[in-house]
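Minutes, structural biology subgroup

Action item carried over from last meeting: produce the structure token record for FtsK/SpoIIIE domain-containing protein (Myceligenerans crystallogenes). EB confirmed the sequence was re-checked against the source entry. Recorded below for completeness.
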Amino acid sequence: MSNGNEKRLPDDGELFAMVYGAAEVGRDARPASGGAGVPSSDDGMPGADAVAGEDNALSGEVIPAPAGPAEVEARAPRVIRQRGTGEPLRVLPEWATSWDVFLPAMRRHTAYLASWTAHHGLRLPFDYAPKFLGRSMVGLAVCTRGLVRWVLDSDQKATRKLLVEGVRGTAEYRALRKEYREQVRARLAGLTAGGVLLGVAGVTLYGALGPDGFQLAAAGAGAAALTAFGIVGTRKVDKPIASEHSTKVPALTVDVVTDALMRLELSGQRGEVKRGNAEIKVLRIFPATGGTEIHVDLPAGATAADVVKSKDKLAGALRRPIDCVWPEGNPKAHPSRLNLYIADKALSERGVVPFKYRRRGVTNVFEEFEIGHDQRGRGVSVSLMYNNGLVGGLPGMGKTFVLRVFMVGAALDPRTELHIHELKGTGDLLPFEPIAHVCRSGDDPDDIAALLTDLKGIQAEMRRRAKIIRTLPRSVVTESKVTDELAAVGNPHGFKPLMLVIDESQLAFNDPTHGKEITALVEDIERRGRALAIMVWLATQRPNKDAIPTSISALISLRLCLRVGDQTTNDMVLGTSMYQAGHRATEFSGEDKGVALLAGEKSDPQLVRGAYIDGATTDQIVERARAHREELGLLTGAAAGEEPADVDHSTILDHLLAVWPENDPDWPNGKVWSDELAARLAEHKPALYDGWTGPQVNAAVKNHGIEAKGVKHKDAGGIPRNRAGLTRTDLAAAAADEAALPEFDTLARPDESEED
Ligand SMILES: Nc1ncnc2c1ncn2[C@@H]1O[C@H](COP(=O)(O)OP(=O)(O)OP(=O)(O)O)[C@@H](O)[C@H]1O
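Output recorded by EB:
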């Protein structure tokens, strides 16, 4: 035992305490007899700390000691348990349990087998057979040469030469020569015997089989010999007879896909991403309809969205056209799971997508219906109800066709009332006339005024519905909106789904006379009509803020972007930052007609190639829709032969002047409170002004350059008040100014001159 003063080397525990702190090993350390306050080991010896404390004392900050072994042991590894460990194993392969996998695979293999048979079948008689015959001759020559060399023992020629060297003329030389001649003679005899045996076998066979059978056997033997010589000859030539299958693109193997993904430098650091289990992991490569599906787990830190952003680079690395490469995320798995679809053919090379309901079937606007196919050939469906829509794209890329798909979808629900305003003036949507409540084509002043009137009517209908919905019991209106049940045929409230379509809507919003009013009305209808079964669809070539005012664009939930020219337009149709996120309708080619990105249906925009409905098909569908409506007694408006509502050119100024006599005895100074005017308007034209307030009147007249002013007047109780009101002379002057405006046709169109 030590006495405490003796110097000694610290043991392991003490060394640990020196490094990691006394707390872990000497929790119960007490002062040693050798010095006050100096910790010692249990046996009373001054510990290592004592040495450090006295002689080598360090000054500085005390920091918490790192964990000692006990603590390290206590800390369990922090693993978040994931699905997978206890997940049941797949019993059958996926192709045996899923038609979606099995059928495409079968189709692909059958197609390949058919093409293989046709390719080689055609070449067999004209290319492969003559080639093989030639090779048989080569084989025959090779075999004959080999036989001659065997008989003459040519392989040993050099050895024999060496042996006879120097012994020429001797007995040994003669013995060697004799031995060689006998060997050649014996081999020749063997060969002759073989030939004779063959001859005897032939004669026997002839006797047994008769001439026909012998001929057959001889032909078989000849063919076998030819084949054998052919094989020998082919080996000699060392070149395959069949033409090799050459492809322009590399096959999609794990290595090719991994290499292509590595080129994207997903982790942001060159060389950081490695192939193999730890980083890029190609989980499955399997055939899908019209292409190949690849599922990949990306390196930690990289997401599928990163790949979507670099789609062009990926397509380049895979040596495929950009519209054959479709990366997307799989949110159900995790953000780093990439589902990559590689199409065999570019979208523009595939046939048009047929419309599912072109021959039969009805739709329900409250449910989804198929509008086209995605890049994988799967149906893409949308629900029209509770959505407002926008279709944007360069001229000639298929806006009208896409719009037509949605309209046909609505038309096939016999309840839907169609209000169509095609301002382009080419009559693209006139085929809907036989079923439409309103159907106009053109942007003449009359057409714009008709649109305004129609919008006012829809707004009034919207108010009527809102009022009824408000008053209906909760048991009937469960969600404060028009439901399928409330819109059912025979519903006493008449909540028919209503679809308003404005093609080339920029012409309406920019109209110098009614543009502002139309904008306000469309905004109001979009805002409040959605829940009341009123759907607004707009289409435009260039959806900038003039073509679709921001207030309206913000209310659009379904957006279809056909090919556009630049990032700004792309984002205007699809939404902010969509281009940045890799959703780029700018990448479509001029051949991608009817191909669009659809935003709003799913969390990410999806690609859709709209169904192709030409004029003749539209006519057939409309005819069917009309017959159905007639049967149910649901034809209304123009389609029912009702006189179109008078085109009303009047504005709020005319309506105010009508309800405000020039010398109003109650308001002698020519000024009236706006509240009072709102009440008079509501009485005069309830369809337009029911529920209006003073501020609404002020806002409406502001569009005509009139400002509300303070008007002093006595209220009902006879107390003088100062409230916002209008001056009649202002109204009369503004109305006169507008009447004196030049004809609509001669006005400059800012948007058109801009586009020109
Ligand atoms: N889904 C589709 N599939 C195949 N081709 C289509 C599709 N949609 C449109 N097209 C083709 O594109 C052409 C132009 O379509 P559409 O008239 O709808 O273009 P647009 O964008 O409305 O043109 P504009 O802006 O000049 O009115 C059509 O004639 C049709 O041949």
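Discussion: Residues 352, 393, 395-401, 424, 541, 593-594, 609-610, 612 surround adenosine-5'-triphosphate (CB under 6 Å).
Next step: EB to file the record with the rest of the batch.
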